[in-house]
Amino acid sequence: LSAVYMTLVEGCRPTIKSVKQVAIYGNLYLVFVFILNQIIGSNYLFIAHKPETASLLDVLPPWPYYILIIELLAAIFIFLFYAPFAIKDRRMKKVSPLSNPSEI
Known about the structure:
The protein is mainly alpha-helical. It has a domain at 16-82. It has 3 helices and no strands. The chain has helices spanning 2-8, 16-40, 65-95. The chain starts with a helix and ends in a 9-residue tail after the last helix. 0% of the residues are buried.
């Protein structure tokens, strides 16, 4: 919700650099939580194993392959959410040389 607010009200927007940062920091967090899980015997983010109760993870392959599928899905969704901004940027670049006819 805060991301929508910042985009629509405050005018902040994602960039390709921020998309890369999300991927990098998200994976660093994943590694940190994996190590923490090993130390304290927990299963945060369900990266040590699938939950014992039924979940959507049951339709995915067994550990560790489901983590790769989730990574792929996350990347797809991140780029889908970024796509409108990239399209707008591309359109603005095409329009900008003609936007000021007095310079021609």
